[in-house]
Every structure is written in structure tokens, then in C-alpha cells.
Amino acid sequence: MYGEDFYGGTPAVTKNCYGRGTVCYVAADGEQRLYDDLLKELADTAGVVPIVAGEIPESVEVCSRESGDTEYVFVQNFHSEAVEIKEMKLYGEEILGEKGEMLEPFGTLILKRKIEDRKM
What we know:
The chain contains 1 helix and 10 strands. It is mainly beta.
């Protein structure tokens, strides 16, 4: 709750559960830790399993697509400078790019792995 000024007595963060879904509304400009903690709590509660373990750098996006029993993991650097990715726990067959300590500027790494082999 906001304690004073125009927003005094109104919530800074609200959460509503409906059916199997949950939505949160953040009506504040909080520190990054607020968003990190909130998203972790929501993901844990929903049983979401991360695509990769470890720290994902700010300019890196990780997503996956599935086809049958295979998962394709896309690791993309959206920065004009190389980014260190050695803290990310990456595994699978390299389809494009190389697993290493760095991901080149605007680089992409694609991994192919069996869904049943997911490691977390």
C-alpha cells in the first residue's frame, strides 16, 4: 500500500486469481529485485520449469519450440557487443552457433534436445 500523497491507501501491487490463472498488476516503478522476486514466485507457484538454468544476461533472450519429442532452444544476443553466457547451463546438440563462454554481437545459438532429457 502507498502510505501517503495522491496514492495514499491504494495498493502498489495487486494479485487476482481466476480459474487456473493468476494476474498481477504492479502500479509502481520498483527496483528490479521487485520484478525478479514477483516473477519467480509466480513461476514457482504455476510450476513453470526454466528453459535453461543459471544466470541469463540482460541482453540475452532464451525461448524454445517443441516438435514431437524434440525441443529446440534459441539463445539470442540482442546487444551490439559480445555477451558472457558461461553462467548459463546450456546442453543439447548445437544446430547453429557454438556453446562457449561468449555469444557474439546479435548472435544466435540454437540447441536441439530430447524433451525427456530436460535437466534442471
